[in-house]
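Why predict the complex rather than its parts? Because the way molecules touch one another can change local conformation, and only a joint prediction can capture that. The input here totals 569 residues.
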Amino acid sequence: MNPSAAVLAMSSTEVDLAPVAVGQQVVVKWRGHPLFVRHRTPKEIAEAKAVAVSDLPDPVARNANLPDNAPATDANREIKPEWLILVGVCTHLGCTPTAFEGDYGGWLCHCHGSQYDTAGRIRKGPAPQNLAVPPHSFLSNTRIKVG
Amino acid sequence: MSGQSTYTPKSGLEKWIDQRLPLPRLMHDTMTTFPTPRNLNIWYTFGGILTFCLGVQIITGIVLAMHYVANADLAFDSVESIMRDVNYGWLIRYIHSTGASMFFLAVYIHMFRGLYYGSYKAPRELIWIIGVLIYVLMMATAFFGYVLPWGQMSFWGATVITSLFSSIDQIVPHLGTAITTWLWGGFAVDDATLNRFFSLHYLLPFIIAGVVGLHIWALHVPGNNNPLGIDVKSPQDTVPFHPYYTVKDAFYLCCFVFVFAVFVFFAPDFFGNPDNAIKANPLVTPPDIVPEWYLLPFYAMLRSIPQKLLGVLVLVGSLVTLIFIPWLDTSRVRSCRFRPLMKQFFWAFGVDCLLLGYCGSQSVDAVAFGIPLVWAARLGTLYYFAYFWVIMPIVGLIETPKKLPASIAQSVLGEPAAAPAE
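Output of the joint prediction:
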């Protein structure tokens, strides 16, 4: 019952970043899941950088571009500070969290109340892990390839 | 009670069949002459009602499957066409969807009946355990069925429930994710998931029917328990199943069908969720994901635990607990009628299940009477487990039961008249 060849074939997506304004998030589909592309404001970046890794419930970066044990600093969560690329699947039970909500200004998952900060790191609620950062790379300044 | 057969073939044909396949004998012994305690009340009619529900679901389901298309692009529209174009499709679908709720309503009454009258106690442990198995199969079937219309609740309910398995990641890294990928047949709930759920939704009711056969077979060895919880001691304590209980079951079945029909014809969407009238969208989760009413207490338990793996373990544990009830209850008296203390804990347990159901129906951060509902759900979860693992064993030991009647016949007919004085 594992994924068929047809399912495995749709594994990478390209996203144009040019239309995404500062402070905005767009959601695109990648491997059947929502993919968050968030253009962070300087304030959101500063808030994310101000958090000590020791204060995080999940201290691991969960970034597919980095080694498994990389610490969850803000710098380890993205390639360019203003562009945060995340798999929009709550690590609790798979709902799509809502952006710009919750105590930490990142995401709030309405299903079971998990809250993520502006780097997509879990801060409160039942979810065990930070939102995953998918394997991605910059093709140009305004275009990324995910997967 | 089983063993002795009173069947006598009347014609040559019946004799011929009886010697080759004694099916008429089986039907005669189980449905006609089967000695049944004479004091069974209304709550004992739900076994028959449940068999009826299963039959209704299978028949309406087979017709629906003739018109339904299990494809992520077409499923939602095919259900719409059943509602609008198929002859009496609206009726068949509403009977099927309302039927699921009525099925669970009946099974909950049936289970609470068993809990109250101690029907799980020796020698009926296996009847109870097989019953728990049927209940779990019913939940699985209902879950698969709920996914098929491919609305928003279908899709996100499927996502949340299958993601429960990803909690295994916290025991064996990557195993849980591998299992969910295997269950989905992809990286997310999608077409492959819908197809396999349809396949299983069609299969499971027939497995349930088979297990129901075992349930009834096991029941017919010791015979029915009864509201007094005492054993049948003489033929005076029983009446033949037919006509006494065929008529009683048929009467209450009619009452049940009346309620059923009121929902089907006057409030067919009463149990439904409006979000499921929106086609599934993998990019947007509805603001509040709520399961069907019959799963709400378990959902509340899952949500009340702020740790993923622990939440899932509590959910699984709440069902596994049911299997151990026959051994957790230490009382020598079956029926709560004679257990003044246990009776109070029993009703508190009933209220607890309603409370959990209410908590499950509200959003995560809801507050009622100044109390965050998540705390109410935590207390409710605590009582749920305490009821079975602490209260049942202890109360059974410390409680003084009331005096049991000498026999069923005596309790029904009164004290035997004193012998006339000479």
